[in-house]
Each structure stands twice: as structure tokens, then as C-alpha cells.
Specification:
The protein is built from four helices and two strands; from the N terminus they run αααββα. It is mainly alpha-helical. The chain has one domain. Helix 2 runs antiparallel to helix 3. It is extended and about 50 Å long.
């Protein structure tokens, strides 16, 4: 049995590579503690661009391509994808408003909670 022919093994290898890439990407932060405001803005802009590209090319484009498979027409596909996009934005807005979280400059925001910071981080990641 070849290693790359088994979907399970391929999934494990891809997950490990993604984890290693994430760790390598975090190395600059561990090497230097203080960055200039300009550098932080550059890194945040790059990360936002990567996330926008990922959502556009990995999620939205295949969703629009489903028009040919489902034969729903462009109006149907745009309405379904647009509704999902708006629903995701609404979810982010509600989560921001009702889950307690802390900003570096403004301090705590949202309802007070007795959840430990670790559990708040786990909730934010998932």
C-alpha cells in the first residue's frame, strides 16, 4: 500500500504539515518581543489578506461554481451564497456583542463571566 493512496494517511500528513507551517509562521513572534506599530500593521494586513483570499478562492468561488451542478441559475446561487455570507457576519457580530472578551487598549468588553481565560480562548478558536 502506498502512503499517499490512503486518504487517512494523506489527511494525517497534511494536518502535520499544516501544524508545522503554523509553528514556523509563529517563530518571528517568539524571536522578538517588541515590534514597531508599522510592522504590526503590516503583519495584520498580511494576515487579513490571506484570510480574504482563503475565503474568496476556497469557499466563495466553489460555491458559485455549484450553479452548473445544481442548475439553480445565477440568481439562486447568488442568493444562497449571499444569505450564507450575511448569516456568518451576523454570527460574528452576535458573538462579539454577547461573549465576554478583552481588548489590549479598551479592556474587558461584553457581559461579565466567570469563564477562565483558557476556556474563552478555546471558544474563540472553535
Amino acid at each position: 500500500m502506498q502512503l499517499f493512496s490512503d486518504p487517512f494517511s494523506l489527511g494525517i500528513i497534511a494536518s502535520l504539515l499544516a501544524g508545522v507551517a503554523t509553528g514556523v509562521g509563529a517563530l518571528p513572534i517568539l524571536m522578538k518581543a517588541d515590534f514597531s506599530r508599522r510592522t504590526l500593521d503590516l503583519m495584520l494586513g498580511f494576515a487579513a489578506g490571506v484570510m480574504l483570499a482563503a475565503s474568496s478562492f476556497s469557499l466563495l468561488v466553489p460555491a458559485f461554481a455549484e450553479q452548473t451542478v445544481q442548475d439553480a441559475g445565477w440568481i439562486g446561487v447568488f442568493s444562497i451564497v449571499g444569505f450564507g455570507f450575511l448569516l456568518g457576519g451576523l454570527f460574528v457580530h452576535i458573538t462579539d456583542k454577547y461573549l465576554p472578551h478583552e481588548h489590549f487598549q479598551k479592556g474587558p468588553e461584553g457581559p461579565s463571566s466567570s469563564l477562565a481565560r483558557v476556556w474563552l480562548l478555546v471558544i474563540a478558536i472553535t
